[in-house]
Amino acid sequence: MSPIHNLPLSRRRLLTALAAGTASLAMLRLMSNPARAAGRKNFSLRAAPGRARLVPEPHGETPAWCYNDAVPGPELRVRQGERLRVTVENALAEETTVHWHGLRVPNAMDGVPHLTQRPIGVGETFVYEFDAVDAGTFWYHPHQRSFEQVGRGLYGPLIIEEADPPRVDREVTWVLDDWRLTQSAEIGEDFGNRHDMSHGGRIGNTATINGRVPEEFAVRRGERVRLRLVNAANARIFGLDFQDHAPTVIALDGQPVTPHEPAGGLVVLGPAMRADLILDMTAEPGSRVQVIDRFYQDLEYRLIDLAYDDAPLRDSAPNWSVALPANPLPEPDPATVRRHEIVFNGGMMGDMVMREMGGSMGEGGSSGMMGMMHGDGIWFINGKAAEGHVLDPMLTLERDRSHVIAMTNATAWHHPIHLHGHSFRVISRNGAPTIHREWQDTVLMAPRERVEITFVADNPGDWMFHCHILEHQAGGMMGVIRVA
Amino acid sequence: MRKSIIAVLAASVLGVAGYLTLDTAVQAEEVTLYKNPQCGCCEGYADYLRENGFDVTVEPTHELVPMSRSSGIPDGFQGCHLAFIDDYVVSGHVPVATIDRLLAERPGIKGITLPGMPQGSPGMSGVKTGAFEIYAIGDGAPHLYATK
Asked: So which residues are the signal peptide here (chain A) (predicted)?
């Protein structure tokens, strides 16, 4: 298919979906948001092999896969209500797609190969077009062989600005990543190996912020920074300790949350998750404060230093309001909710946890030695290990109705579980109601944890539901939820 | 305890010649065990080695795949943790009798591996469902070293 044909096709699909009366009232209202008059922004992304300066001299540049010759790709930035038109050119040697992570887009724009679109072939172009419905911190990445394509550097931030954001001195985006580099600063070629797939995923040895091993972040006492954090790593979970600073979380996965200090002072972000922080710089002028990643016990490391200028900006933190305006999310109705159960099984030590907590690893499935040796599925959702993106729906949700999905992580590992096309409220963990009932699109489940989420299934189509540890996804931890 | 196990093993497997190697094995053997930071079974295996007289240092790492590969262990034969004992690498939940044999015989190989994490193996829960096949790792393809 020539690039010229891609545009009408994608556009037609979108229009068909709307015109056929399949879009819900809520989504229709979002699509015809009056703010759309604000206009359309055009972007171009070119996925191609390139080089990235991940680690400083005397190391060399790292051969990577880049959007627009950079890691991360360009920060796409629009205002809420604007329309994005993104032309994606594939200059890789393999097929690709782009998924707009966390955005509530029409199904045909969701970027899942074979499920929502034909993959973008080598040398082909595809045009994505959708409205920026929710303000917040989002990101984009391929959904085709993502464990390698994202792992080699294909990702970028997508920021949708509020019309009336909280006042800050500076707004900064940190896209966090983690690389498995060799001594010569090249990316280790061991993508997709069974050990990583059956344990905690491909966790590397080099953490970067915005594609660079960071040294310091220059700040001034009294300064207020809005820090947009995006975890673009395949598998590393970050647990950031800002030490004497008291960050206030104002949004999770792009969606506003009651401003609060994170539990235990640690900002925990699983792969694909985001947090917006208000960070008041309260240390002494001329001082340095380390930001430490403490997630993995005995493997703590300094991520970056906050380096204070000798001259303060002001003596104490400002008292400006930090709350964000709400996004137009439909509120689920507990009275009419439909309930669904999902159990995750598999992985190393999975037999053991399954015996304790139940579930199924399907016919002949095994996480043990035989699975390691013979290439069976490693991870199971309700007893099934996925192969490929085109799957019979594991759940069909009645459209425009409220649903609760009760999820049991009957495995020995963490899983950040991502649902496409919707945001959901996280309402309980291990039976206890959550304090903030936070909206997320990716919820981090601890080993053996039970989590309940709820949402209105207002976006019709077949949507991916998967673990965002990309090696787990590739190992079968993926399913399709149909909204119809 | 460790000394007696070595002695018994050496006597049964190698006869008198084995005793001569005891000079180097009298001290508690030092082991560095690299494991995934979130893997509990590997701690169980470290305890098992300690109970059998080894002096074990546990080091969490995310680098098990590159380390296993550079130790010559093909992906399909990797255990879930990696121990360095003397000049050998021991991958996975290898029973101590096999390690003792390795240290007594001192073959010209890089090490041994029990792939995966079979149920009922040392440090693992569950019931043993079949013989453990432990492979020798060298320059060529892995070959069977012991069946336990």
From this structure: 1-37
Find out whether the peptide bond into A58 is cis, omega within 30 degrees of 0.
Answer: yes
B29-147 maps to CATH 3.40.30: yes
The residue among A197, A348, A353, A373 with the most chain B CBs within 10 A of its CB, best to mutate, is: A348
d(CA B114, CA B126): 16
DSSP string of B71-135, one letter each residue: TT--GGG-BSEEEEETTEEEESS--HHHHHHHHHH--SSSEEE--B--TTSTT--S---S--EEE
Interface of A with B in 33-92 (CB under 8 A): none
A231: nearest Cα among A167, A166, A163, A155 = A155
Which stretch of A95-109, A177-191, B4-18, B94-108 has the lowest confidence by average pLDDT? B4-18
List, for residues A11-30, the tens digit of each pLDDT value. Answer: 333 333 333 333 444 444 44
- Of A314, A150, A334, A304, give the one whose Cα is nearest residue A229: A304
The two tokens of residue A252 are 């999770």
**Option in B37, B117, B126 nearest A297 (CB):** B37
Helix, strand, or coil (residue A291): strand
- B34: tokens are 């690299």
Q: Which among B63, B78, B116 has CB closest to A205?
A: B63
Q: How many CB pairs under 8 A join A and B?
A: 80
Q: Is the previous residue joined to A3 through a cis bond, with omega within 30 degrees of 0? A: no
Q: What is the Cα A116 distance to its own chain's centre?
A: 19
Tell which phi-psi region holds residue A200, choosing left (phi > 0), alpha (psi between -120 and 50) or beta.
Answer: alpha
Contacts of A166 (CB under 8 A, 6+ apart): A226, A250, A278, A320, A321, A322, A323, A324
- SS3 for B57? strand
Per-residue pLDDT of A222-237, as tens digits, reads 999 999 999 999 999 9
- Chain A residues with CB under 8 Å of B126 CB are 351-352
- Report the distance separating Cα B39 and Cα A468, nearest Å: 20
Say if A414 is an interface residue toward chain B (CB within 8 Å).
yes
Q: Are A199 and B117 inside 8 Å of each other by CB?
A: no
pTM of the model: 0.88
Q: Which residue has tokens 């049964």?
A: B12
**At A288, which helix (H) or strand (E)?**
strand A288-293
The domain limits of chain B are 29-147
Distance in angstroms (rounded) separating the CA atoms of residues B140 and A262 = 52
Interface ipTM: 0.81
Q: Is A103 in contact with A138 (CB distance < 8 Å)?
A: yes
